[in-house]
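FW: tagging you since you asked about this chain on Friday. Here's the raw sequence from the shared folder, copied in full. Didn't touch anything.
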Amino acid sequence: MGGGPDVGGEEIEGVSPTAGCRGGGDVKPGALEGGTPAENAATVREVFAGAPGAKREAVLLNAAGAIAAAGRAADLPEGYAIAREAVDSGAAAMRLEALIVFSRAGSEPSPEAA
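HL: got it, structure written out here
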């Protein structure tokens, strides 16, 4: 096959998915543990506000994969750069707030329903 990664087994060989992506060191066990829905929402807002750390790296790597899979980037490093710019510029936080407003629209009881 043409020089791409071997994905025939349980492990992907011939590619380092995070090469050129990571902005930090190794992640300690438990550093990516979630919490309650409210705690997780606060974490997302903190990451989008610029908080550094393992959770930021996880968000950026997940976004990089989605961006590359959607064809908006040639590979993970390019997707990572796009994701980092979206977070650092505030665009990701603005989209999150727009999604929150959209998701809450119509969830308010109408006066006619009362």
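FW: DSSP finds four helices and no strands in the chain.
HL: agreed, and The helical segments are 37-48, 54-69, 76-89, 91-104.
FW: great, closing this out.
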